[in-house]
Design brief:
By secondary structure, the protein is an all-alpha fold. The chain has one domain: Arp2/3 complex 21 kDa subunit ARPC3 (Orthogonal Bundle). The protein is built from nine helices and two strands; from the N terminus they run ααββααααααα. Helix 3 runs parallel beside helix 9 and helix 4 runs antiparallel to helix 5. It is globular.
Length: 169
Amino acid sequence: MSAMRGLQPWRWLGVPMLQVLVATILFGIPIRVFDLQVPQPVFPMALAFAWAVIRPSVLAPFAVLILGLFLDIFWGGPLGLWALCLLIAYGVAFAGRSMMAGQGRLILCGWYGLATATAMVAGYLFVLLDARSAPGPIPLAWQFVATIILYPYSQRLIDLFEDADVRFR
């Protein structure tokens, strides 16, 4: 069914980007539960992973860069931090793309966890070098867990668009 629809960039890049931007803004609302703030998942991580698995494209890394810059501006972090971290996650997933081909959901979930962990560790090290002080490990762990929970969204995108382009079967 998805092969008949084709792979227009607005469908596999534009619509998910819009969904992720809206989700990031909604989760940015300062809500406290039992005097604790809700962890901020890195919604674009699901896209960076899915786009690397779906197909090679020139547009996807630029979209990941734009999403990372949006996160930097939205969260008030150093400009380029999340853009670089998301591109690293995209690179990890893209490098392992051939090993992920034909694998089950559990293996893909493991790769998603690896890409997310790589991006988070890179972000931790970049902040450590930039600020010369270590970010808190507990908030980082919560952000990691909240981002890992987003894997089903990434899998949904992979299921929708993986076979849509017959050139990469």
